[in-house]
Amino acid sequence: MAANLTPLAPGTKLATIGTFYPAEVVTSEVGTAPTTKAPMRKTVIRWTESIPAAGVHKGETEVWVQIAGRTPRFIVTADN
Questions:
Q1: What is the distance between the alpha carbons of residues 78 and 13, in angstroms, rounded to a whole number?
Q2: What share of the chain is helix, strand, coil (3-state, %, to 5)?
Q3: I need a surface site. Which of 15, 48, 54, 71 has the fewest CB within 10 A?
Q4: Could you tell me where the DSSP H helices lie in 13-66?
Q5: 61, β-bridge pairs
Q6: CA dihedral defined by 50, 55, 56, 61, rounded to 10 degrees?
């Protein structure tokens, strides 16, 4: 399962699942979740548009974690 998780390149364009709020990768690294010891990917994203009703503001960053075998919160967009 760890083979499925690779770091994402800085600048990779992303969108949130279900809402398609646009973002881009600032940094990304693969490691092990501290509590479950499962493979995980920790990605810092930067919003590329503002959607005030959703609390999304252009230029702000968030840390998102994906654990192997679980549905991610974002997808890589097709225009990369």
A1: 8
A2: 10, 45, 50
A3: 71
A4: none
A5: 46
A6: 140
